[in-house]
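Sequence in, structure out. Go.
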Amino acid sequence: MRVAVVVMETSHHRDTEGRRHLEQLAETLTEAGHEVTVFCAQWWDGSGSQFEPDDVRYRGVTASATEAVFCTRLPALLATYRPDVVHAYPAPPSVLRAATVGAKLARAPLVVECFDDYEKPVLERASKTADQLVVPSKLLQTRLWEAGATSDLTTVIPESIDVDLVHDVEPAQAVDVVYAHPLDETANIESLFLGLAELRQRRWSATVIGDGPERERYEQQATDLRIDDRVAFAGACDRERRLAIYKGAQVFVQTAWRESFATELLWALACGCIAVVEYQAESSAHELVEHRDRDFRVATPQQIADSIAESAEMGHRTVDESVAEYDHGAVIQQYETLYERLIDEYGLF
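Output:
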């Protein structure tokens, strides 16, 4: 299958969750044997209009992220490429309109991937343009419905993980509690730290994975609560290091205010961690543990403390096979099924 991915600014221009997801999707589709080209503004050095790192082909529509020129050139390039499916990022709106024109010229269905990277008007425009909207969680599906999309227009396909990699990584040194999220204004580590402070009389250790503009403030919070001697800030670890820490940990605590899809929580579950998830109105994290008996959904720091204490009595695991449905291969099959349905339906018109 030939897939054209359209995202004018990649994560190399502007690092957001949705952009990273589309690039991961392009890589995974390529690994599954599909021909994938990402149509974007050039982000690599040199004068060549094409670049192929890790077998994914990037096609530079423009030398820089100049919206007007990009939109002028994109439709003809898509028509020439003749994809079976056009899979686009929904912003900016002018680029989505250009992708729509290009998809029509190529006689291909348009799929739009929606994360929490943009405001409601963007979703409203996407719902009027796409042949199908894909979201990673029920939370975002509800937002699309509120923006005017019908249930038939939306499909939930989760983020994916590499289950084989989980099996391959060796556990790091044992730790009681682990937390992972960019250390920004949405991280909400306060809830975890307040819960840990309630457990001062117990023996425990915690590791915080991530870096960002609020790191110094969170480190000061740990000091103010007099738990800094038991909380280690590990920084922005690579994937293998994160998995090693998760496999050595007993509990993964999820407290962030906003999550389109709680990917780090999913990795931690695959590594056998017991999840303690604080409910947040702007986070979909609770969806991952709704039907799991070993994990906890909580609403207050005191409940976080109680759940951590209870988790200490449970057996330690380093792998959980029940999350195999989120493996890259299984999730790509969901995209393939969607593409095939849309191609068949498009051929009827």
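Check: The two ends are 20 Å apart (CA to CA). The chain has a mean pLDDT of 94.
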